[in-house]
Specification:
InterPro entries: Nitroreductase, Nitroreductase-like. This protein has seven helices and five strands, in the order ααβααβααβαββ. The protein is of the alpha+beta class. Strands 1, 2, 3, 4 and 5 form a five-stranded antiparallel beta sheet that branches.
Length: 211
């Protein structure tokens, strides 16, 4: 797989995650090893990675995710309610909405759940530069997803569980100064491969030398 193919076909996999096929723990470790090569502010590398495979732990985290997702799907910001005045894009959003709901009802059944975290100097988030803070773990999380794709695994970028971050932290026994960045379900996928997704044209989002 070329770098271009990898970057343009790493999708959020929701309906096509194989919930029955086990995932070799060594594959997940390899993906995280790759992710550790990502940049972090001041090279501090304050990331930590929780890999959830215990059925009961996955069930508890999955239930909290499902609860949060149901509230999201009922909100004005749900994917299916966006771009309602654009028929073509609205159809795409409806499919996304449906796949989000599908995954929410099965999150606890996904063979592996990965939660990248940041360990902070104190229990409270610092004021100011949040981009710099989370920029020290989010590139690594994306690298993990790319590495998984290269190894025949599907993943999805999710953060809805953060509505219940404290409850998830209690389930996992996280210290108060460890904050979660995402929840990445990981599994083999059904079907053969993925293709690039439709995106807004570059001309609509590119600005040169100013807005």
């Amino acid at each position: 797989m070329t770098a271009h193919e990898l970057l343009t076909t790493t999708r959020s996999v929701r309906k096509r995650l194989d919930l029955q096929r086990p995932v070799d723990p060594a594959l997940v470790r390899e993906c995280i090893e790759t992710a550790l090569q990502a940049p972090s502010g001041s090279n501090a590398q304050r990331w930590h990675w929780l890999v959830l495979t215990d059925p009961e732990v996955r069930r508890e985290v999955g239930a909290l995710y499902q609860k949060s997702c149901r509230a999201y799907l009922d909100s004005p910001n749900a994917a299916g309610r966006l771009y309602a005045d654009d028929p073509e894009r609205s159809r795409v959003q409806a499919r996304v909405n449906d796949s989000v709901a599908h995954l929410a009802d099965r999150m606890g059944e996904v063979p592996v759940l990965v939660i990248p975290c940041l360990q902070l100097p104190s229990e409270t988030l610092p004021e100011g530069n949040q981009a710099g803070l989370w920029g020290s773990v989010l590139p690594a999380a994306w690298s993990y997803m790319l590495a998984a794709r290269a190894r025949g695994l599907g993943t999805a970028w999710t953060t809805l569980h953060l509505r219940y971050e404290d409850e998830v932290a209690r389930v996992l026994g996280l210290p108060a100064n460890v904050r979660q960045a995402a929840l990445i379900p990981t599994a083999h996928y059904t079907g053969d491969t993925f293709k690039p997704a439709p995106r807004a044209p570059l001309s609509e989002v590119l600005h040169e030398n100013g807005w």
